[in-house]
Amino acid sequence: MKFNYFHLMPWTDIEETDQDWPVANKRFVPDRATALYETYIDTMVYAEECGFDWIGCNEHHFSPYGLMSNCNLIGTVLIQRTRRARIAMFGNLVPLLNPIRVAEEYAMLDVMSGGRLIAGFMRGIPHEYVAYNIAPSESWERLEEASELILKAWTEPEPFGWEGKHYKYRAVSIWPRPIQQPHPPILMSASSPESARFAARHRAKMGMVMLTDLEAAKNCIRIYRETAREHGWEPGVDDILVGAHTCVAEDDEAARRHLGGGLDYFYHVLFGGPRTAQRLVIQKTRFYRDEANRKTLGARLAALRRTTIEERIDKGMVLCGTPDRVIEQVRHLHAELGHGVMNINMKIGNISDAAVRRSMKLWGEHVAPAVRDL
Amino acid sequence: MSFQENTVALSSGPLAYHVAGDGPPVIHMHAASGFRATAALEALAQSFRIYAPVTPGFDGTATHDGVASMEALARLEAEFADTVIGETADVIGHSFGGWRATWYTVLHPQKVGQLVLECPAGFREEGVGGLSPDPEELQRRLYAHPEKLPPETKPESMVTRNREMLAHYHGGKAKDDALVDRLNEIEALTLILHGTKDGAIPISSPRLLKRLIPRAFLIYVYDAAHAIEVDQPEYFTGLVGDFLTRGEAFLVNPGTDDRAA
User: Directed axis angle between helix B96-107 and helix B70-80, to 10°?
Assistant: First the structure.
């Protein structure tokens, strides 16, 4: 099993936010953010020392939920300060961006890192479409077209043009091209049946960054595998990433206290504004083509907010406790899902950075060696 | 703009052709299915005068004695251009027509303004792509959006006969090595179009053309198979019209105010 260290880079210096979207930035303090970026980047670099195989960046907009509005910028810093770990992008939100720019920046990252890039082609969560003024109903077809265009930009040996519905270029020939051939591995979100099918059709790794329901996750993995076979390929275990909020501590009670407090802050303070925009997008647009999917997601998000830390542990949705307890939880998850990459997010909400580093150290010294051979 | 059918007497026999529109002359060379007045061509005829000669033996016409090769067809089409058009014309060739258009440009460069090769045949490796004998597979290779296909107006026997005529002209070969050897002679500004879902022409084919034709542009048409005019008529008309109007400057986005400049 491989391990990805994922970091949202949350803003943690507020006690409450209103539910408006976008979240007013008058409470943002630039000097404080300088210190936060330094801490967060140091933590992500430390992940390599703790035995993590990948370090995960992501992209979010207009909210204290995450300060990584451009994951490629953070990726560039990580590349310079690490030597072994792959840099896994849980951005770029391809439908919102210029696909040629994405192709170029990913190629730069791949070349500069000596071929350590895992390139995310993400659709994004609903509120990002409000932020960048892109019609949510176009998200799938933009993702589809942009993904094909980026692959073409990476692999086409001669200058070419593109005539499509959302993108038109008369002449493309990017410098540099990626070092990984024919192109870097692709990672796509697959947290719904619809997205699992999409990832499989595009021969991408599937990512479920945060487990919300074990049965739903099993279903997505089954659909992903079946769709891949229908399209003539067999995913390996490394193609399936499953994530959980994680806290490892010397005793179960401390771990529960840290993670419970962080989750509470995450859902009630950080995610207020995004949730408002999310609700609007889900209710008022065709962001989800599948009506059942739309209803399921809405209900799941509402339930998630109310779920206690004990319920989350019992349902296998988080990894929380002593190293021995977490080893047991990872083994259980693996037995249920058969995934090959575990996505670990430890900086949940306002959990202290000291507790996060302690958790990482315990993971590296105790948990990872015990579950690596799964 | 509706196409009108005419016939012209040439040295080897009568040649049927279709014509529509007003503007600079454009010769359109049809694919293996024979001439089709697609909505894309009719839209293009708003800005160009389009001449579409019917290859002898296609669409119920008779073959011409002594015209039984791609080079001979190019010579026949040159005689057609001299007789009917009388001036340099841009050329569009689709599939089998793209093959002819390439020979035409190689053998008669002075008659060609700009060249558009729409998924041209004649440049693929043996055993890759081509026209499948299985009707369902054939449709998959040709159309990404078969629902856009207008109702068939030609009898089945004519469609079959049209396809059989291919061997009469090129012997059924997939790749025309003699033509490949001469691609670097083409001086005309050339636009190569390839549908991202084309099942008849493998991607190696447009890449070969792009590599060997000196002043060529390759454009991938998204969500189109082999019949780009059917699958994405608006993309085809906009792109080809812009290329034929602005030449090399078509690379530059004209915005909304600069197109007339």
Answer: 70
Instruction: Please return the burial class of A279, using the count of CB atoms within 10 Å of its CB with bins 0-12, 13-18 and 19+.
Output: middle
pLDDT score, position A295: 64
Query: Is B258 exposed, middle or buried (CB count within 10 Å of its CB: 0-12, 13-18, 19+)?
Result: exposed
Nearest to B219 among A149, A157, A161 (CB): A161
Q: Which amino acid is at B115?
A: L
Look at A159 and B210 and tell me if their CB atoms are within 8 Å. Answer: yes
Residue B190 structure tokens: 């050339």
Judge contact between B175 and B122, C-beta under 8 A: yes
State the pTM of this model. Answer: 0.88
Give me the domains of chain A, ranges plus CATH numbers: 2-371 (3.20.20.30)
What residues of chain A lie within 8 A of the CB of B250, using their CB? 170
SS3 B187: coil
Residues of B in contact with A153 (CB under 8 A): none
Q: What is the CATH number of the domain that holds B206?
A: 3.40.50.1820
Give dist(CA A122, CA A147) in Å, integer: 9
- Characterize the bridge pairing of strands A168-172 and A186-189: unpaired
Euclidean distance between CA atoms B29 and B213, whole angstroms: 19
Domain that holds residue B72: 4-248
pLDDT averages per 10-residue partition of chain B, 261 residues: 94 98 98 95 97 98 96 97 98 98 98 98 90 89 94 92 94 95 98 97 96 96 97 97 94 67 41
Residue from the list B210, B211, B219 with its beta carbon closest to the beta carbon of A163 = B219
Locate tokens 């259980």: which residue?
Answer: A332
CA closest to B231 among chain A residues: A164
